[in-house]
Amino acid sequence: MSRCPSLRARLLLCLATAATSAGVHAQPAQAPADTATTAMPATDLPYSGFASDAAKAKFAELLAEVRAGKAPNPTDIADQRQFYQRYNDARLQEVQRRYPAKVSELTLAGVSVHSVEPAGGIAAAQRQRVLINLHGGAFMWGAGSGALVEAIPIATVAGMRVVTVDYRLAPEHTYPAAVDDVEAVYRELLKHYRAENIGIYGCSAGGVLTAQATARLLQRKLPAPGAIGMFCGTGLLFRGDSGTLGQLAVGQAPMGSDGGASLPYLSTAKADDVVAYPMQSPELLARFPPSLLLAGGRDFALSALTTAQRRLLAAGVDARLIVFDGLWHAFFVFPDLPESQEAYARIGEFFDQQLGRAQR
Amino acid sequence: MSRCPSLRARLLLCLATAATSAGVHAQPAQAPADTATTAMPATDLPYSGFASDAAKAKFAELLAEVRAGKAPNPTDIADQRQFYQRYNDARLQEVQRRYPAKVSELTLAGVSVHSVEPAGGIAAAQRQRVLINLHGGAFMWGAGSGALVEAIPIATVAGMRVVTVDYRLAPEHTYPAAVDDVEAVYRELLKHYRAENIGIYGCSAGGVLTAQATARLLQRKLPAPGAIGMFCGTGLLFRGDSGTLGQLAVGQAPMGSDGGASLPYLSTAKADDVVAYPMQSPELLARFPPSLLLAGGRDFALSALTTAQRRLLAAGVDARLIVFDGLWHAFFVFPDLPESQEAYARIGEFFDQQLGRAQR
Questions:
Q1: How far apart are CA A251 and CA B41, in angstroms?
Q2: What digits encode the pLDDT tens for the residues B42-56?
Q3: Complex prediction ipTM
Q4: Kindly report the CA angle at A95 between A92 and A100, in degrees rounded to 5?
Q5: Would you kindly state where each structural domain of chain B is located, as residue ranges?
Q6: Angle between helices B177-189 and B205-219 (to 10 degrees)
Q7: Where does the record locate the signal sequence feature (chains A, B) (predicted)?
Q8: CA nearest B256 in A: which residue?
Q9: Looking at chain B from residue 260 to 319, which residues have their Cβ under 8 Å from any Cβ of chain A?
């Protein structure tokens, strides 16, 4: 986080620092001091032959933007917010062209939310179910259009109501403010839906918050949601190989070793807090509901996700992992990619299979 | 395959060629001609912080062996066979220290097999079930001790009988000889076990063969096995990002673009043969049994496995993926690593949950 806003919701980032960052050399390295460190030579990475032509074209476009330095000032939050607002607004137009939906704004337990339904309405079989979406954006932006980009395709493909939560953002509000807001909305929804008929999912920061909120609900002895989806983020810091390999693969500098711990939102979270970092508690994980973890193969979050899934499996949880080779962090904000549509289908199927069906 | 025996069963490979291989530069690259190709600078990759200390120590050891050029002559099959025989014999000693088992040799339908049981015998609840193990080794070696290294931990942890098949090897015998041998053994086992109580699994070349054999059984309209495990190999060529990223991460040269198609075994396999390359046929995949796919995060096979799982999911198959961050191709031949023991546990659970329980 020191160099780049690594927990950012989107690909476009500070390429300018890549060539001079720690761990990156102009020459092939000598054998490194740590005998388990691999000295990788400079290499051209061709785009994955397993990804679609559309993904390849979009990747080339994004890579060109990164090369051109099209990114907000990483030390200016107002500039970042403005940049990602424009970015998310553009994505939302693409989403709305493909997935017609009805969107309404309301307040639940004092928290602003959007309620999203398929334009044709909700099928009778899905009326007793609801999904809570927690948007990405480094806990600092992503409300509004960013949230709708994540909610509309899922509402439409799954045929379910999705409630997006405009949780309080950092740096003005830090952990556990966002968790408090999700808990408040969940308690309100419990008045209308059975817990096992409620799903929670989120992307990037929203994936982290999904893990945290689930831990909080369990800690408070509330009935657990029926299933959760942690996409491109989970209850672990962004450590492991993908912080280096995934970043290099998208033309960026390796992530710092803090793995996101220095994000403003987490400044008030202690390392041993099992709500802030739930993947460290096997006892808590054993009570997690069925979980879907999903990421791109070039996502800096990949190692956190694969590790979180292993810990959930070890705790006896039905945890599913899907990895899209060649795709990048939060790729499914681009609704026209076949891989995005595949992700929406898998997410919709997962919640349809895992959530309860009983009427309240 | 032109440069390195990429479908090899083990890590130790031709480092010597790494620095001069196509796609690897002594200097950071100019923007590559293909606008979707990423020019990655030389980089020190620290070992994954998500992996165990034991895995880190073993990786450092293997990296040192790679640096020292401890690898067989890639153009001399006799040398490779001798090298891997010694290698597998050493692994087998480690396996036998930790997992006591009874091993017997027999012939089924004219094919040599080993039958492996836990030393304490098979629990009553597992007597109606059997697993078929198809060993790795580039389709050119790995019988005997190599097969037992893969079979003994699973037999012991799952408490099931495992039959390892000494299928005919290349280059003396090519596709579909190995598939024929697996089919013959399967038909013989069908006389004693219900199809849904039989599992098939394999690592590396054995993972490829598991996919091929399953496709063959379905094509011949035999009853499908109850579940299969494709580890570090599957019914897809080794293309995608991991052919570059995974190889670089273990100190080796990027895999050639043929992704294994030039292996001697596959010299008689046509690209459109759905038994040789089953992942290209959605209709065939739809009939696949529940599948477990498992790989290390630094495995050159990772992209093939993640892509195969997506194709199986898209075909409606219950396909599970597990990825071990920082671990390498076929890491679980080292039985003392916590990650290996975790893999054995997940494999055992998977077959226990998926295979049928009815008596014949």
A1: 9
A2: 999 999 999 999 999
A3: 0.92
A4: 115
A5: 11-28+40-359
A6: 60
A7: 1-26
A8: A46
A9: 297-298, 302-304, 306-307, 309-310, 313-314
Q: Is the pLDDT of residue A5 over 50?
A: no
Q: Do A43 and B24 touch (CB under 8 A)?
A: yes
Nearest residue of chain B to residue A302 (CA atoms): B325
User: Which among A227, A129, A65, A245 is positioned nearest to B242, based on CA atoms?
Assistant: A245
Question: How many CB atoms are located within 10 Å of the residue B259 CB?
Answer: 22
Beta carbons of A348 and A74 less than 8 angstroms apart: no
Tell me which of A8-12, A123-127, A180-184, B77-81 is least confident.
Answer: A8-12
Tokens encoding B207: 């993972």
Cβ separation A320–B324 shorter than 8 A: no
Interface-testing mutation among B15, B17, B34, B38, with chain A (most A C-beta atoms within 10 A): B38
Which residue among A35, A39, A57 sits closest to B44, beta carbon to beta carbon? Answer: A39
pTM of the model: 0.92
The sign of the CA dihedral B53, B337, A261, A219 is negative
Place of tokens 């074209």: A57
Interface contact A24, partner B, CB < 8 A:
yes
A193-219 pLDDT, tens digit per residue, is 999 999 999 999 999 999 999 999 999
